[in-house]
Structure formats: structure tokens, C-alpha cells
Specification:
Radius of gyration: 14 Å
Number of strands: 8
Strand order of the largest sheet: 2-6-3-5-4-7-1-8
Largest sheet: 8 strands, mixed
Strand content: over 45%
Shape: globular
Order of helices and strands: EEEHEEEEHE
Distance between the termini: 37 Å
């Protein structure tokens, strides 16, 4: 049996940009991506702590060290710059593997989105 479990989480990052005129996705600082084990094109779920919005999109690489967390396209309507969001990814695993798996959970600085 395969089950879906939390693979990684960026807990409480700050939205730095919202670009309605982009094709879609979420741009994330490559340092944050590395820390959470995310790759370009990966599906992620975004939860906005400020307004309760929940949605999914895919990751594109942002400039390393920039602290960038930018919602693009239609997702830009679900956030405002300065909102706090949680970004989560999930993975399918065998049931026994999932019981032993530990997700990567990253707690960046809320003001800069830098890894502490």
C-alpha cells in the first residue's frame, strides 16, 4: 500500500512579492528550496496564515540568498506582500517506509526568509 505523507515544509515564510501577470507558480529562494528538499517543478501546497487561503501550485527557482517567496499568476490573488505562508510538499511512500520517514521542516527567519 502507498500513502501520501509530508515530505517537507517551509514553516512561516513571508511573501515578498505577488505577480499577477506571470504564468503561474511560486518562486522560492534556492537556499530555502535546498533546505526543504524542494526541486523546480515540484507540486507544493500553500497555506496563508493571514486569510486562510489554501491552494497548490509548482515551484520555480528564485535567486539564491534573496529571501524571495513570490506567488505568481492566479495565486497572486490569494496573498498580499507581507502575508505569512506555510509551504508543504508531500510524497507517496510504502506504508512501512512512511512510518520511518522524517520530513524536513525548516523554520526561516520571518523577517528575512533566511535560514537560521
Amino acid at each position: 500500500m502507498q500513502i501520501e505523507v509530508l515530505k517537507s515544509k517551509l514553516h512561516c515564510v513571508t511573501v515578498t512579492e505577488a505577480n499577477l501577470n506571470y504564468m503561474g507558480s511560486i518562486t522560492i529562494d534556492e537556499d530555502l528550496m535546498d533546505a526543504a528538499g524542494l526541486i523546480a517543478g515540484e507540486r507544493v501546497y500553500v497555506v496563508n496564515n493571514n486569510n486562510g487561503e489554501r491552494f497548490d501550485t509548482y515551484v520555480i527557482k528564485g535567486e539564491r540568498g534573496s529571501g524571495c517567496v513570490c506567488l505568481n499568476g492566479a495565486a497572486a490573488r490569494k496573498v498580499q506582500v507581507g502575508d505569512t505562508v506555510i509551504i508543504m510538499s508531500y510524497a507517496m511512500m510504502d506504508f512501512e517506509e512512511a512510518k520511518r520517514f522524517t520530513p524536513k521542516v525548516v523554520f526561516p527567519d520571518r523577517n528575512t526568509n533566511k535560514i537560521l
